Amino acid sequence: MTTAATATTSSGILHHTTAFTSEILSQSELRHHILSTLRRKLLPSDQLTLKPLNLAAETLENAISASNASIQSSSLRLAQKLLLSYPRTPFSSFLLSLIYSLSNQPIKSSLSLLQVFYLDPSLARSEIAPTLFEDLFLVHFLPVLQRFNEQRSTILSSLSQNVNHDADDYSICDVSVVVPCSKLLSKMSGDQALELKELERNYEEVLDENCRVLVKYFQEVLENSDDGNRLISPPALVLKQTEKDEELDYDQEDKNIKTKELGLKNGRYNPIWAEGERSGEFYSSSSSKSKSPFFPQRVSLKILKKQNSRTLTTSSNLNSDSELESISEDNSANSCSSEPEAEMEENNREIALLETGKSLTQKQKQPVFADSRRSPDYLMADNGNPPGSGKHTPPKDFVCPITTHIFDDPVTLETGQTYERRAIQEWLDRGNSTCPITRQNLHSTQLPKTNYVLKRLIGSWQEKNPGPVPHQSENHQDVESKPMVKSIVPATSPNSVISQATMDRTINELRQAITNLCMSEILKESERAVLQIERFWQDMNIESDILTMLSKPPVINGFVEILFNSVDLQVLKATFFLLCELGSRDEAVIHTLTRVDSDVERIVALFKEGLEEAVVLIYLLQPPTTGLVAMDVVESLLAIIKKRDDDMLKICVKPKTASVLLLRQILQSNEENVASSIISIIVSSKVIESIVGSLEAEWAVERIAAVGILRRCIQEDGKCRNIIADKAQLAPVLETFMATSGEERFEIVYFFYELVKLHRRTFNEQVLNIIRDEGAFSTMHSLLVYLQTALQDQCPIVAGLLLQLDLLVEPRKMSIYREEAIDTLISCLRNSEFPAAQIAAAETIVSLQGRFTGSGKPLTRPFLLKRAGLEKNYRNLMRMEQLHNNPGKFEDISQEEKAADAWERKMAFVLASHEFGLLFEALSEGLKSRSAELCSACFVAATWLVHMLSVIPDTGIRGAARVCLLKHFISIFKTAKDIEDRTLSLLALKSFIHDPEGLHDLTSYMKDILKGLRELRKSSPLAFEIIKVLSEGQESSADMWNHKELVQVDSSENGEVLSMVSFKDKIFSGHSDGTIKVWTGRGSILHLIQEIREHSKPVTSLYILQSGERLYSGSLDKTARVWSIGDELIHCVQVHDMKDQVHNLVVANSISCFIPQGAGVKVHAWNGQSKLLNQNKYIKCLALVHGRLYCGCHDNSIQELDLASGTLSTIQSGSRKLLGKAHPVHALQVHNGLIYSASPPLDGVAVKIWSATNYSVVGSLPTTSEVRSMALSSELIYLGCRGGIVEVWDQKKHTRIEILQTGTNSKVLCMTLDANEEVLVIGTSDGRIQAWGLS
């Protein structure tokens, strides 16, 4: 054991950790790289915590980007709480350190960051925080490093002598410069290799253990930072000996020099070689496959650049001149570095140039370069002499690491390394695309311009140091007795020592196979070469240089030739396998394949012929969408998707995965007809179930593609929604939602939003519960976080889904999810800068009602029309839905209706109650929009919510709704031409009439809506109800039922007008001279259309059967005629001989009843048979309703005759003649179960009202006028009297409203109302016809 360096202060620890976390927070790319590394390194036992860790990471990213301080604080608290609820891992500790840093808690941030070093020291110092390790830990590890360096030297001592002899006395550390790795390995015994491997393992374990020891020490220092008087001593270091324990003397003064002397980077060193053999084409190593913790990990170019920029590397002495400073500045610029000048000066002071004649210890004092760009293959003149010293060894920055000669034409690559132009060009020409030293991929192989700054410095140095410059090998004199230790770089693993010979043989075979593939003109040889290369690929670990060789254009072209010429299925499969594997690793392969169109066409052709592997290559080629459509590969794609995964081949990308991804790309085509036809094929061929299976795919990108395809299927053919909802496993989709962002995340939300539009409410809620509860994370919270960053057009969909999830339980007084969702909907509805978002928000509110058709369309409007009394359309729609879903039977939907009603009440309550009706204001603004689509959606949403106010508990929001929307509903009712829109507005207005204030406000608009109400009162019970309520609220009904004369026609030349009837838009009148006239009933009222005279005597009766469009006329000429009235002009189709005068005619389907010349009433069958009934009475008038014949008699009696049974009942008994004068019943009407009779007012009552069920008197009209005719509307009773007057009575109140004067003293013999009950037409005894209309 030995003691670490001097005590560390809390301020020092905080300085280093705070600088590190600040850098991480400021550089998003570096942060994402580290988080990705931590995810990759999670242990299998920690995989269950990956979901909450990803959620916490996403929440942290949102907090970093949030501009609102409260949102940032809330997100940080949430992420912190989530992380603390799970066991500590390096991932969670790292996230906590960043969270605490953002929360201004530096000590907690430092403690959490140190915890990463405690939990996984190797990962922390090599990949997470190597700079922090150097600054904070490495200074304490010098005894450990010195000890292991001595053990390494002991093991290599014997090998050093042999190799030095073969290498002409060159340093063991630099033997790879001149001696191939295979030659060096041949000099090493098996025991030496095992000893080195054991040393490596021990070294790593000791570093890990001491990291943990120091973490405990640093944490103790931080936790006691408030106690300024307490000094905490550094802990003793742990040294694990390989042979026996020894006490180590450690001089603190030399720690900086010894660190450089040992050539260490991040506390790691390579006990064997710095570099293996690297030829122009091969770099054989198994380190990429066997995890060796001794070699620094390869990182991306961007990350490497950032790490490189942290330190400056140069060669100088204590008295460095201006030229060397210029070199530092130039190199710094090349690596995008901006180090402070103080650090540059410190680096220059630490780097000393060594002379040949100095002692071994001095020779070993070589600077450690933190920049990994420094050449590991050659030891340049770090001991270069000062200018003018007489020595001619150039500084290492002046020498090319490839040629080992001083630069003549230096070029600096993008990696920051400088090479001789001729040498690096040759390197690139040999097919390499990486930097020789850093092994980073080069984005461009075109060399830059000459580095003239460096060239001028070299020229200046040559002027001060005249004379020949020796070859680099001449600088290594006396190496055998004075070995030098190099800096650490990636090296081969000891495992490669054992397998090197086998590897060499295999590579030679591979070379020969490639040669045969590219050069042989014999197809069989080329085919064998393909199979041989495939076996090599399957059996060996493919390294970058081998990949580079196989990816060269000539090799790829050889593979393509096989595709064109071979018919061997095995060879073709192997070729596709290799091209796919190469293309997935090297974009240059894809570029080579896409250069020639015929190559791509051949690949597509083979795919269509059934070669499944070809689809993977097509996917890797990334063809444009238009190209994919032109390929016409949909059927082949669907065939592969339909296959089971078990049938698929093992390849870099599964054929099914590639097919799903390509199909998704095709469906994104702008050609809607193409997408529609493909979707119809998907649904009809049942491929959709296989696509549903892709929701559980291993690749997130496949799951997202499947989501996109299924959403398009739902939009095109909503009936497949039930299949998807029934088969889909949503948990993997929810996991994908957490791991994605942007458009992909919205795609998933949109899919869920569309999926829960099922026609069964109970099934909908089951799916919603799955979405809410599946997975280890909170879907609702994730949606809430996403809602805060989603695009404006996406917000309504996200808010709609979030609100539905929140309402799965009974509405609570407060819910942050609900409040945020409704606020978002209102905000989108009001934001006129985004019209698409406005429409989406309105349509979302409409769909929240919760009822849908089988195709997923909202039933809100049809259902409201049903409630308003227009049930026909709704019933037809539901009948079709049920027949489609359950052919041959109707589904019992009572349970579903119950669930739908409960959901509707909950949803309406939370929407209407939000902020005391704030949503009504937004809907009111939407109704003012010029967009017809937005107005329509807002109108349906407003109608629904206002209608529901009469159902949900009143929380004082009815007033707000009335103030915001009443005028809009009145306006729509007055101006709308569509009867459905007018009916919906009435449904909303009905909700206001139950409130006294609402009724008062509505009454003020009565004159504006009265006409419309009258027009709708027959088609809509709502209109009748509102008229009734409004009339009851008036002191006098006269204002509501004012009539004015429209037109008057004189037909006195035809005698009296004896009968009148209306049908649709025509009015028919019968006259005493036997004429029948046809008049217009609309537009130009009483415009004569036709006049026909086929009866020879007066036409006493006109009767219409509504179903058959037939007019029946009865006359005193003893005939009854049947007229066809379907055309513009009427014509007689049948004449019946009645054998008696017809005074009053009523008709049923197969019979007619009329009053003959004498007593009784005749029942006449159309086949000619007749029967006389009630022979004891003289009948004055008749009424026929539902097989019951009502007779008003001359003796003032009223009788009911059941035509089916012949039963006779008396409603009112007759009376004897007074003074020899009869008092007949002149008019009789049956309406809504009541019998209205008109007779002379003997007792001051001319009209009596009877119940048709029990014959009791239920009312009367106290008029003294002599009534001769009567007509009834839905609300009014019209009495035609002697003296040329018509009295208008309220049917409900039995009060007289108005008296109409005809202008003559004649009798009003007949009356009729048009279909809308808006126009009253009367006929008089002096031959006049008048039309009166409601004003």
From TrEMBL:
GO terms for biological process: protein ubiquitination. PANTHER family: RING-TYPE E3 UBIQUITIN TRANSFERASE. It comes from the Eukaryota. InterPro entries: ARM-like, ARM-type_fold, ARM_LIN, ARM_LIN_2nd, E3_ubiquitin-ligase_LIN, LIN_N, RING-Ubox_PUB, Ubox_domain. Residues 311-321 have a biased composition (Low complexity). Gene3D superfamilies: Leucine-rich Repeat Variant (1.25.10.10), YVTN repeat-like/Quinoprotein amine dehydrogenase (2.130.10.10), Zinc/RING finger domain, C3HC4 (zinc finger) (3.30.40.10). Pfam families: ARM_LIN, ARM_LIN_2nd, ARM_LIN_C, U-box, WD40. Keywords: Transferase, Ubl conjugation pathway, WD repeat. It catalyses: S-ubiquitinyl-[E2 ubiquitin-conjugating enzyme]-L-cysteine + [acceptor protein]-L-lysine = [E2 ubiquitin-conjugating enzyme]-L-cysteine + N(6)-ubiquitinyl-[acceptor protein]-L-lysine. The keyword Nucleus does not apply. This is RING-type E3 ubiquitin transferase. CDD domains: RING-Ubox_PUB (cd16664). The lineage of its organism: Eukaryota, Viridiplantae, Streptophyta, Embryophyta, Tracheophyta. Residues 393-468 form the U-box domain. Residues 310-394 are annotated as: Disordered. WD repeats lie at residues 1092-1125, 1301-1335. Its EC number is 2.3.2.27. One of its GO terms (molecular function) is ubiquitin protein ligase activity. Pathway: Protein modification; protein ubiquitination. It is an enzyme of class 2 (transferase).
